[in-house]
Amino acid sequence: MDILYRIVIDPFVQMVATPDFLIQVLWEGFVAGVLYALIALGFVLIFKASGVFNFAQGIMVVFAALSLVGFVEVGVPAPIAFVLCLGVMLVLAVGVERLVLRPLVNQPDIILFMATIGLTFFLIGLGELIFGGEPKTMVTEELFLPTGSSVWEPAGLGPDGAPGFILFQHLDVAAAAIALALVAALGFFFSKTRIGRALRAVADDHQAALSVGISLNQIWVIVWFAAGVVALFTGIMWGARSDVSFALEIIAFKALPVLILGGFTSIPGAIVGGLIIGIGEKLGEIYWGPLVGGGIESWLAYMIALVFLLFRPQGLFGERIIERI
């Protein structure tokens, strides 16, 4: 009974006893969830255009962030370096379309997936050749991102009715605001514009899209460039919270359980899935982690995704595909 109490009841008792700490945990989970959603958005854009999971999105995050820091290290002002990185992402998008996607039109999805794996290792090798393998510091202040923190002391939310104490890192506030704005802008662009409708047509049937005059090549360049822009913002935000290194690729693959929860083709699903994973990880690590020695944050997202795969494999917002034989 003692074990059952510690698992089922005690965590909620702790939440009620220290509501200010609960709000702090929820806030940190919210920030992480928004950034997870931003990562997932890059995967969603590629999947909507080609129907293939882009294995290279994680290394694109790393490559974009390293490019930005690399430009600044050679003396380029940070705002100009940011614009140059957008150019790098455009060149990458054109190169992928010309050298990878165009020769593989109408090939099975597994062929395109394997091509993105090859692209991953190419970018890893190119990144190590150009930038080396040492972690680098994100140029946070040069990009005019805020630093420091603010404290909120709400009355009555501390233990025994004392004033509460909640810390907000200014960088986290900026990261959440920028990520939400980018997700909203891209969501509007790809759901309400002519390009967005063309993208959905390409995702449904390549040949049908070509037959009505939609340029498959242009759509792929646009969507890969958009994914590159997302990768750049993701690399900046995550790199500002830690070092810029190839370890960021591991963080990027947290988008996989986010996609499973939200659906591989849904932009709103990426947002909701990211928030579920981000908040769920923080709550699990803080309140249930001590019961298993900690480390829940590294695997809880994948356990949640496994449960969704068993009961709703298309995700919360994914489309159920019915094939009649």
Please describe the structure with a list of short key phrases separated by commas or semicolons.
single chain, 325 residues, globular, ABC_transp_permease, transmembrane, transmembrane transporter activity, membrane
Total DSSP E strands:
2
Largest sheet: 2 strands, antiparallel
Structural class: mainly alpha
Oligomeric form of this entry?
Answer: single chain
> N-to-C SSE series?
HHHHHEEHHHHHHHH
* SS element count, helices: 13
Q: Which regions have little confidence, pLDDT < 50, spanning 5+ residues?
A: none
Radius of gyration: 21 Å
Keywords: Amino-acid transport, Cell membrane, Membrane, Transmembrane, Transmembrane helix, Transport
Protein name: Branched-chain amino acid ABC transporter permease
Pfam families: BPD_transp_2
Transmembrane segments: 21-45, 52-72, 78-101, 110-131, 173-190, 219-238, 258-279, 291-311
What report would you give on this structure?
The chain has a domain of 225 residues. Helix 2 packs antiparallel against helix 12. The model has no long low-confidence stretch (mean pLDDT 84). It has 325 residues and is an all-alpha fold. It has a two-stranded antiparallel ribbon. This is Branched-chain amino acid ABC transporter permease. It is found in: Cell membrane. One of its GO terms (cellular component) is plasma membrane. Pfam families: BPD_transp_2.
